[in-house]
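Morning run. Coffee first, then this:
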Amino acid sequence: MAQPITIVDAFTEEAFRGNPAAVCILKAPRDEAWMQRVAREMNLSETAFLGPRADGWTLRWFTPGTEVDLCGHATLATAHVLYEDGRLSPEDVARFHTRSGLITASRRFGWIEMDFPATPATEIETPRDLAASLGAKPVFVGQTLFDYFVELENEDTVLGLRPNISGLAGFGGRGVIVTAVASKNSDNPVAYDFVSRFFAPAAGVAEDPVTGSAHCALGPYWAAKLGKGDLLGYQCSARGGHVRVRPEGDRVVLGGHAVTVLRGELADN
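And here it is:
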């Protein structure tokens, strides 16, 4: 029985930008080893696997190397497919049961918004060799539930980073979030509030194009620092993408767009 699979570019309105994710709405139960093999075959930062349950869906995310606890762009991609295929009507709320608890997604003013747990950064002493591995001097270093969190001096420094990827892999955890306040100039026509990049070589992803889950830390950090409740972030990878962020207590609402770029089937192997 062939298994349908869809590839979606998330956190973008333009194909071949944002962060691509593969979405498998499972026709039959599959074991974890099969899901990991499919994710390795897709070789995208995440592949999402969705199975029905009485009160929503079970959702799991796999990188090419491992299963992860939280993923924003593949959740956005999954909700996009459910709405686009008519499995959910525009007014329906998607309910995803995940390793990080219940996550919901809904359509609002042309965006898909997702209710995620906040993962704020707690300030720590700068780990030895972190600055050298990044090639830049941190302004702030923290640690979230999953990642190291580093603020740099300005947007240009974040854009110009050429980190030692193998060096970053040695720090443990999922990855390293790097961020700075946005430069307000003619190169920022959409008036985003902050920029970021995300490196996760330990999870098999040297640099993730747009990382929704990283904004569960970026949102609370910049909301407090800038005194704003509703922010727009730009992840300035080579593909680039925008994430709307609205902290709400111990939750964060992430908003984005998505574009389907490929539909196909996995042969029954």
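The domain at 122-248 is CATH 3.10.310.10 (Diaminopimelate Epimerase; Chain A, domain 1). Good start to the day.
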